[in-house]
Design brief:
The chain is α/β, with parallel strands linked by helices and 234 residues long. It contains eight helices and 15 strands. The strands form four sheets. Strands 2-1-3-4-5 form a five-stranded parallel beta sheet, sandwiched between helices. A five-stranded antiparallel beta sheet has the order 10-9-8-12-11. A three-stranded antiparallel beta sheet has the order 13-14-15, with no helix packed on it. Strand 14 (200-203) and strand 15 (210-212) form a beta hairpin.
């Protein structure tokens, strides 16, 4: 499980961030913990490893959010949240993964949070093959195809098969990574090189694979791809 801690002395913003997290496509991967005081977070961290922190810079506590991170969470990725633009410089170079203004939280979660988790999660898919168990990083998958009740997984160099697994059961927990181009084919949106007007997508794999996009999905695919790609950085 990917553990996320949210700490802010304002209960409203703790609730707001947690609501965004709960509505995100990747919520099945994460466990969210909420804190109003630094001591509560530090105490919980003794028994729970946090993979990501949302930290209010201006905590109304003995130390501010930046100093708390420096003292207790030097090796944990941090997304600093604040209401003040001029606080950005204070947070740079201090274990900062992202910096988000509270008034921009909606934009951040709509366009960029999926990419943040994409970089941090390193999700692995377990595949049982003749020589044993194989762990495949979801970021290495170019596209998948459902055929004969099996899921065919294509990377740059290999093809792997998940036998007797439904497409829905595979896509549901990984849908932040993939966009459908037909009923049976999903592509990893990071591998899109070009989309042609003749309804083909060309991938950025070694073979420059061309895959047909179902005509009734073309416009929806373009919209989904633009929405994901446009929010890479804040």
């Amino acid at each position: 499980m990917f553990n996320i801690a949210v700490i802010d002395d304002n209960k409203y913003f703790v609730q707001k961030i947690c609501e965004y997290l709960e509505k995100s496509e990747c919520y099945s991967y994460v466990e969210v913990y909420r804190f109003l005081e630094i001591n509560q977070l530090i105490e919980k961290s003794q028994e729970t490893h946090f993979n990501l922190l949302f930290v209010d810079i201006d905590l109304n506590d003995s130390i501010n959010g930046i100093d708390m991170v420096n003292n207790y969470f030097k090796n944990t990725p941090v997304i600093y949240v604040t209401s003040y633009q001029d606080k950005m410089e204070d947070a740079f170079g201090k274990n900062t993964f992202k910096f988000v203004l509270k008034e921009k939280l909606d934009t951040f979660f709509k366009n960029q949070f999926a990419q943040v988790l994409n970089e941090l999660l390193q999700v692995e898919i377990k595949i049982i093959e003749s020589d044993g168990l194989y762990l495949l990083n979801v970021n290495d998958i170019c596209y998948i195809k459902y055929e004969n009740r099996n899921i065919h997984i294509y990377t740059n160099n290999d093809e792997h098969i998940l036998k007797r697994k439904s497409l829905t059961s595979f896509i549901e927990p990984h849908k932040m990574f993939f966009i459908p181009i037909s009923r049976d084919i999903y592509i990893n949106w990071k591998y899109v090189k070009k989309v042609t007007k003749s309804c083909y997508v060309i991938l950025k794999d070694e073979k420059c694979t061309e895959l047909p996009i179902a005509k009734n999905r073309y416009n929806e695919f373009i919209e989904q791809y633009i929405a994901k790609e446009s929010g890479l950085w804040y």
